[in-house]
Amino acid sequence: MLLFSKSTLLLPLLASISTATALNCTEGQALLEVKYNMTEDTWNSTYPTADTENEPFLYLPGSAQFSLHNYHSFADLVDFEQCLPRNECSEVVVASLPTNSYQIRFDGNSLDIGVEIPFNGKNPVTSTEVGTCTKPTCKDSEALVDLQYWNGDLVFIGSTYRIEDRNGNYIINATSTSFDSLTRNRACVPRDNACGYTFLIGNLIQWDPTLYVDTPSYNLFYDGKLVSKGDSWLFGSIQFGDSCQPRCNQDNESMVELFLYDDGSSSGAEYDYEYGWDLTLVTDGASVPSSSGVVPIGPSKSPLYHETICTPKASCSSFVISAPENAPIMGMSYALAMDNNTYRMKQWYPINKSLNETTNMGSCTLRGLCDEHSQDLFELELHTPERNTEDIVNGRSSPVIRSDASDGISWVFDYSDVVKREQLPILTESQYIGEAYELDSSYRTVECVPKSECDLAFNITADLHGASYIVRKNGVKLDDSRELPDEVFTSRMWIMTPFGQNCFPVERRLSSGAIAGIIIACLVLLSVTIGVIMGCLNRHKERQNKRDEEDPLSESLL
Q: Where is pLDDT greater, at 553 or 280?
């Protein structure tokens, strides 16, 4: 990920935008004032260490006098003034400061601070419009949709977001391009369109906002109420409006949801290709086509594709996505889910002529999906916690759990014996999950693997960050697990679950009562043995005495 700091990228453009005396604005202009009331003690407690990526700043995007000011220290936090056109709409951005630590005035009037967007987990970034700004005036029969998007400073990572009506018509459709500015998209929509609106957002990668300051974020309001917000996503969708109902019949149908993002950025100025997908129902090894479609990619097409498919409940489905030969080297990202279980959420780089990928979903069985003679059915279910209590940066809990063996969750399914392992494992987490797991979410993997017992094993990082998981073989839960150290980083522990039964050596240990019983039994046996020996000696002595009494000659000879 290529990141640029505002303090380095924009340094040549900085100007002195604070002044000790009031400015005299020309006709047609009005004075903008930003006055600060933060004390030095509050500054020191809020920013205890120097952090150029987390420092506050003030920014006027689009201003003719390009204005950006980074507050490196408390001494830099001086009042700001600038003349702006009175009859135009300007934006004032203040980031990483408590909202009660400054006041904004324009043309002598105090203004309410406008939009607040998540910024660094402690303080927001705010955007306040000044001057002559217009917004839609909705009728009584309409509601205002207000989609607020903060671009952040991930310069080369843009998102596409939109709002559709129930017929798939775009109400709002935008792709972020600039940085450190707020994009507001507003529209009046009919109130009586019951749950007729869908918000969609997609990206090429997913980020952890606790690792990168000033990441993109958004707020979505409908009729004055917050519907959704976020500052970390790969894909997202939400229905809103009145009386929302599930898209599929929950009694007898499952819902498959497909996302795909490809902006063609690596294909040059001219690009035109399409992906294909097929969903089939699998029963006893036979496949029955269910649904199919194409995803066109081109300059006039939206880079964000979304599709929902209803399939028979409790069925086994196989989803195949195919890439064209001229697919971009940089690849694309896609996500696939069924009934709130995510099966894939990753980037795909079809550059090695492996132009298709298959995902199994739903209620699959060994006989229905696999070759019973040469394969077993592997199933993994993983559930993440509602809150990440381990990854806390600057007092903020991360909204994701990274898919990283060193600082997150990672798993692999391969041979137990290191010698038997090939260069690539049979299954690995990176085939299904990209940068991170989202919180309070469920993930599933269903695959046919080589038939084996203790030769194969499932390994997962011992530190699960509050997550839980279940591994099944041919529908049977496996419980025989053991913690083992990493082969290279011995301080890192893994949980190994052999893909068989009774694979670990049995250690037989006796209880203290059993040991005491054995000792007593041995003592009794020893006593009996000694008694028998003493009895034999006494009998021998008696026989000898009797023999001497019967032979007087022996006594005379002596």
A: 280
Burial code (b: 16+ CB inside 10 Å, e: under 16) for 8-23 equals: eebeeeeeebeeeeee
Q: Measure the CA–CA gap between 499 and 181, rounded to whole angstroms.
A: 52
Q: Are 253 and 310 in contact (CB under 8 A)?
A: yes
Identity of the residue numbered 242 = D
**What distance in Å separates the CA atoms of residue 472 and residue 478, rounded to the nearest whole number?**
6
Find the mean pLDDT for residues 81-109: 92
> For residues 392, 394, 397 and 401, what is the CA-based torsion angle, rounded to 10 degrees?
-50
Identify the CA nearest to 363 among candidates 339, 382, 336.
339
Quote the pLDDT of residue 117: 84
DSSP 183-209: EEEEEEEETTSTT-EEEEEE-S----T
Q: Write the pLDDT tens digit of every residue in 173-215.
A: 998 866 777 888 999 999 876 678 999 999 888 888 777 767 8
Span 412-425, pLDDT tens digits:
999 887 777 666 78
541 touches 534 (CB < 8 A): no
Among 14, 71, 2, smallest CA distance to 43 is for 71
CB contact at 8 A, 142 and 223: no
What is the CA 473 to chain-centroid distance, rounded? 26
Instruction: Indicate the SS3 state at residue 403.
Output: coil
End-to-end CA distance of the chain: 113
496 neighbors 457 (Cβ within 8 angstroms)? yes
d(CA 311, CA 252): 9
How far is the C-alpha of 288 from the C-alpha of 52, rounded, in Å? 58
